[in-house]
Amino acid sequence: MSFKLDNLGWFYRGKMEQSATLSESLDHKIVYYMLVTCTVVGFLTVFARLIQFARLMLSLFVLPGRELRTFGQPSKTWALVTGASDGIGKEFALQLSRAGYSTLLVSRTASKLDALAAEIKSKYNTSTKILAMDFGANNDDDYAKLKALVDSLDIAILINNVGASHSIPVPFTQTEQSEVNSIITINCMATLRVTQLVAAGMVQRKRGLIVTMGSFGGLFPTPLLATYSGSKAFLQQWSTALGSELAPYNVQVELVQSYLVTSAMSKIRKSSALVPTPRAFVKSVLGKVGRTGGAQGWTHTSTPYWSHAILQWSVNAFVGPGNMLLLTYNRWMHKDIRKRALAKQARINGKKGL
Fold first, then answer.
1. For residues 280 and 267, what is the distance between their CA atoms, to the nearest angstrom?
2. Is 228 a catalytic residue?
3. Which end of the chain is more exposed for a tag (fewer CB within 10 A), N or C?
4. Which residues form the active site (predicted)?
């Protein structure tokens, strides 16, 4: 009896040892397959990032954009530029005139439009028409005058450049109602109304280019510029949807994303690698039509200026546009800008004795 019990004990001990060996072997296999899976996923992730970066470099520095003449013969068609009297809008007008297009210039100040029309005539000898209108007023009579001009011309290119921002960074709860109304009316309503007037003719002619100026302020949520940021985010969604609607009619819609450019709106006078002049920026826009640049993943969108494109690509690839760290940095930066702007205004008021 004792012999049988001993044999039974050895039997169970053997089974337990065998089970432990199998369990240990299974654990090793699980670890092995997890390591293989992580390695493959990591490799594919890195490979995908390299492919995206290669696409970025090709888009920025190698591949040409669509030629402007495909949207309309320059000597026979027109380009309409809103916000044309200063900065980026003025540069669009000059470069399109140099390309041979006649230009319809629309902005608030008649004297600046007259001066720009005279400059275009002397430099490029192309035709111009001007219309002085305040987009912030949202006046139906002004839009009726614009419609009459648009209907009489073959407009091949529309540049939606007119825009407004906050005078200085400001918390939303402290933003004047007049400033909120102005930003929404100019950035959103004016862009929609002008585009609706022009797009109908483009659809009939089955050709055209609609360029709308976006902003990193709409791409990345921007505290203390909340109304402006929201208005530019709206333009991203609207422009992408419009691009899909008009694509069957050979009308190309493109939202142009940008960081800072030297201009009256940005209040930056000195250019740098990250802050180009209007001339350099507009040259990149017109030279890269149809190329996404840094705006990978967004149809009907382009970030054509090289440093802006690399910045956008890097944020999207490694941080994320809505990341808490980026949002916090944006808030801190604009709080600092507001603090310095208020201090400057206090010094000016002190000198004036206010």
1. 17
2. yes
3. N
4. 228 (proton acceptor)
Find the length of the chain: 354
Selected catalytic residue, list 228, 249, 305, 329:
228
For range 13-34, the mean pLDDT? 62
The per-residue pLDDT for 15 is: 47
The CA-to-CA distance between both ends of the chain, in Å, stands at 113
**Closest CA relative to residue 305, chosen from 321, 291, 320, 323:** 291
Q: Are 321 and 219 in contact (CB under 8 A)?
A: yes
Note every long-range contact of 230-233, with CB atoms under 8 Å and residues 24 or more positions apart, other chains counting. Answer: 231/183, 231/184, 231/187, 231/188, 232/187
- pLDDT tens, 84-133? 999 999 999 999 999 999 999 999 999 999 999 999 999 999 999 999 99
CA angle, residues 44, 49, 51, in degrees to nearest 5:
90
Q: Say which residues have a Cβ less than 8 Å from residue 260's Cβ, sequence separation at least 6.
A: 266, 268, 274, 275
pLDDT for the residue 4: 47
What distance in Å separates the CA atoms of residue 191 and residue 193, rounded to the nearest whole number?
Answer: 6
Burial of 329 (0-12, 13-18, 19+ CB in 10 A): middle
Confidence band of 11 (pLDDT split at 50, 70, 90): very low
Which amino acid, one-letter code, is at 247?
A: A
Q: Which residues of the chain form beta strands (DSSP E)?
A: 78-82, 102-107, 128-132, 155-160, 208-213, 251-256, 301-302
pLDDT, tens digit (0-9, with 9 covering 90-100), for 40-81: 888 888 888 999 999 999 999 999 999 999 999 999 999 999
Confidence check: pLDDT of 2 > 60: no
- In 3D space, the residue among 118, 108, 177, 178 whose CA is nearest the CA of residue 139 turns out to be 108
- DSSP H or E segment with residue 110: helix 110-124
Can you tell me which residue has the tokens 């839009």?
Answer: 143
Per-residue model confidence (pLDDT) at position 20? 52
| 156 phi/psi in degrees, rounded to 5 | -95, -25
